[in-house]
């Protein structure tokens, strides 16, 4: 088992990574002396595969779990689901000392984390991420929340879990497209923080795509270490944590403008990271060779690296980008790369520079 610790004073916690961990969840929660009652919040897809195992593990360790199932998918990450969770927690009389287990991908993690942060002004929670994206990104760092009709993640709170348990076996049933999408965040960690990791990904990509457990374990642990390091230096995103948004300004605009479900998050940020690399080349002198390596790695992973823009989509994409929190005075703040493994944040980029790289893509 690999263990990574997130250092946040008295809110520090461990991320444990290994196959077969679902069976040990009960024992782990007992070790942390979490309360005697708990609720498992999961989605319909994940629940039918893993809820029984998790339920039995918790029951076997003396907890009396209740199961709350929300519909699968991003559309369930809303206040209606939050309300439904609150009602079920209250109906089962869960108290201050109870805790919540978030079993699922980023949707369940963000939703269940937000419920835990607010029910009775906050009860403990444990993340049990079951997608690659959730294991390397969303389950770590304490961002929780839900979407409004006006946009994604507009309501939320920073609230750290007591434990993150990544059972590598759960990745076996993940649909290929979801798995590959999660790789976009993995590659991101290489670009923003760790040239060695990037080179390892270039080398080990075939094993990763075969979902070789030992390779995945090592890589997931390294990604969690990087996220933990960044979060412990800047928990509430006043500075350094912004580097985690590399490729996300364009990526979010792609997600928002192309219509729900067209691009998965990882696919959108893959295009966004390639575009950010090209902008980095023109503004910061990121070497051409690095831009090529970045583009090639995403392409070899099976991720899209460019987007075809027709005039309508072009207009929508730039409108979406201008609504982003990071815009001021017509310039957008970007995270840009100096070289693979080293980025800087807060770089002003004009819409013309963005247009230049996206337009080249469109005409290839
Ligand atoms: N809190 C953060 O810091 C943070 C960071 C990044 C992303 N996010 C959020 O994460 C969400 C995306 O998360 P996601 O990509 O995990 O999506 P998701 O939770 O919707 O999961 C993707 C799909 O895979 C299914 N699934 C999950 N685990 C499975 C398994 N082991 N086997 C088979 N099917 C499985 C789910 O039911 C769902 O249909 C977004 O809402 C995003 O905003 C949050
Ligand atoms: Zn992301």
Question: Can you describe this structure?
Answer:
There is one protein chain. The protein has 364 residues and is α/β, with parallel strands linked by helices. The protein contains 13 helices and twelve strands. The chain has helices spanning 25-31, 44-60, 79-91, 106-118, 132-138, 176-193, 195-209, 213-233, 248-257, 265-284, 288-301, 311-322, 351-363, and strands at 2-6, 13-18, 37-43, 64-70, 99-104, 124-129, 143-148, 151-158, 163-167, 327-328, 331-339, 342-350. The strands form three sheets. It has a seven-stranded mixed sheet with strand order 1-2-9-6-5-3-4, sandwiched between helices. Strands 10-11-12 form a three-stranded antiparallel sheet. α6 (176-193) runs antiparallel to α7 (195-209) and α9 packs across α10. Bound molecules: nicotinamide-adenine-dinucleotide and zinc ion (ZN). The site of nicotinamide-adenine-dinucleotide has 29 residues, from α2, α4, α5 and β8.
Defining traits:
364 residues, alpha/beta, 7-stranded mixed beta sheet, 3-stranded antiparallel beta sheet, 12 strands, 21% strand, binds nicotinamide-adenine-dinucleotide, binds zinc ion
Tell me the fraction of residues in β-strands, as a range.
Answer: 15-25%
Spatial strand arrangement across the major sheet: 1-2-9-6-5-3-4
Specify Rg, calculated over alpha carbons: 20 Å
Question: For the terminal residues, how far apart are their CA atoms?
Answer: 46 Å
Q: List segments where confidence is low: pLDDT < 50 over at least 5 consecutive residues.
A: none
Broad shape: globular
């Amino acid at each position: 088992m690999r263990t990574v610790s997130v250092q946040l004073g008295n809110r520090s916690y461990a991320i444990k990574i290994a196959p077969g961990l679902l069976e040990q969840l009960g024992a782990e929660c007992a070790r942390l002396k979490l309360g005697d009652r708990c609720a498992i919040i999961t989605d319909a897809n994940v629940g039918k595969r893993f809820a029984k195992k998790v339920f039995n593990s918790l029951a076997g360790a003396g907890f009396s779990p209740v199961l709350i199932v929300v519909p699968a998918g991003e559309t369930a990450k809303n206040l209606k689901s939050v309300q439904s969770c609150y009602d079920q927690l209250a109906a089962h009389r869960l108290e201050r000392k109870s805790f919540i287990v978030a079993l699922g991908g980023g949707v369940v993690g963000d939703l269940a984390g937000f419920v835990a942060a607010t029910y009775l002004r906050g009860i403990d929670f444990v993340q049990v991420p079951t997608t690659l994206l959730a294991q390397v990104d969303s389950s770590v760092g304490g961002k929780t929340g839900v979407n409004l009709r006006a946009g994604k993640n507009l309501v939320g709170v920073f609230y750290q879990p007591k434990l993150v348990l990544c059972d590598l076996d759960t990745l076996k049933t993940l649909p290929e497209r979801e798995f590959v999408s999660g790789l976009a965040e993995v590659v991101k960690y290489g670009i923003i923080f760790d040239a060695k990791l990037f080179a390892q990904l270039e080398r080990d990509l075939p094993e990763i795509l075969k979902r070789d457990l030992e390779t995945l374990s090592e890589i997931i642990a390294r990604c969690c270490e990087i996220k933990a390091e960044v979060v412990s230096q800047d928990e509430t995103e006043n500075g350094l944590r912004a580097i985690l948004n590399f490729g996300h300004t364009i990526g979010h605009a792609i997600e928002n403008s192309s219509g729900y479900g067209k691009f998965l998050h990882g696919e959108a940020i893959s295009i966004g990271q390639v575009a950010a690399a090209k902008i980095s080349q023109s503004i910061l002198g990121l070497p051409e060779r690095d831009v090529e390596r970045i583009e090639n790695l995403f392409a070899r992973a099976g991720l899209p690296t460019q987007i075809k823009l027709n005039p309508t989509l072009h207009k929508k994409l730039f409108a979406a980008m201008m609504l982003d929190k990071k815009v001021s005075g017509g310039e957008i703040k970007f995270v840009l790369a100096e070289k693979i493994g080293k980025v800087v944040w807060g770089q002003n980029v004009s819409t013309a520079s963005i247009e230049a790289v996206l337009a080249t893509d469109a005409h290839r």
